[in-house]
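Practice problem: predict the structure.
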Amino acid sequence: MKLLLTAVSSALLLSACIQDEAPPAPVASPVAAQSAPTAALPDAGKVTSEQTTASGMGATAAAAVDEAIKMAVKQVNGVAVDMSSEQFKSTLALAVGKDAAQLQATAFSEYVAQQSGGVVSSFKVIKLDAPAAQGGMYTAQIEAKIAKFNAPAAESKKLKIVVGEIRFDTESFKVAGVALPSHKVAEDLRQRILDALTNTGRFSVLDRELGADIEQEMDMIASGQAPSAERSKMSQAISADLIWTGKINAFSYQDAQGNWALSQRVINVATRQVQLSNILEGELKQKQSAEQATQSLESQMVGRVVSAILVRTFPITVASRDGNNVVLSQGGQSVREGGRYLLVSMGQEIKDPQTGQSLGRTEYDCCEVVVDKVGPSMAQGHLENIRMPLEQIQPGGLQLRDLNPKVAAVSASASSAAAPKKTTVAKKTQKDIFAGDSEKW
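Answer:
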């Protein structure tokens, strides 16, 4: 008996020990350990629904309710929806043949949500009044959720620009003995400018070449092949703020010598004012094949065009200064490493005495900045050829302007040649120029 009790006690003790032990840690799945977070989908806009209240009037109760539904759609989507189009006439004429009792029933609310195909996702008649006198109008007030297309949030805050066609006067350009069709060079250049402007992240670049393909998609929605809620995408085309256009004046390369020239303009669509108009030029001094030379010349043109547009539309300023070392407020494709630019000091705003319209602010040539390092959002550089005392200018008061490469080359050569006497000459020049003129700056 004692032996039996001892065995039972041992078994109970062993069981308790097993329960006190921590359970083994679960083995991690190799697949789960290697999985990475899923990248977010690109924002192309989406169809959502918005709650609204609307009123309508009509000769019958049904007509008043239908008018209220149409007003609700207009309130949510504005003039973006063509209410006179056949698809909306057939989709939203839902109350025809219904009396007042039927219009206020729950069944009719469900019928509207079903028959509208998603245009109206929920519906309720709040109030329906008969005319006070014979021949008067019924009035209806409804509450509904209406489908609405929301454009991409980030894109709506950017400047919208269209890259227009690039013109030319000759049928072909000679590059290393090869006659390149002018239209091919212009098409390639336009596409590269479009790509470069898109990649700056500062513009919504609008395409005007795929109009037929886009219209085909819109026709599919209008025909009823797509859900009715998709109709809120119709008439959502965005108009441009700016239009860029250019003309190739020169494009050639022969015997390791090449050059190009391009006239460009940027026009404000709303005011039709010319925001930017100048001629860009460049050279290529390197032995290359016809294909390489073409790519090099086009790359120079694209870089200068995008830089000029950015400088004009998003002025680059000196964010901070330490002696002659400066930090510029933009980087990326706004400026190029090793590039030389003009810095101007911004003066007071001038208005036309007759019209009162702003003519812009006065500008004074300050100095030149050579870009030493370009980062994603800022650039570092140093100042040369200083023409005014910097101590009296706030860093944000200096804006960057493009500088003709030929002028930049001459300026850089002059600076190098005068390097041994730079300190002495600068002090004397500043003293002569700014004596008694400090208030001007």
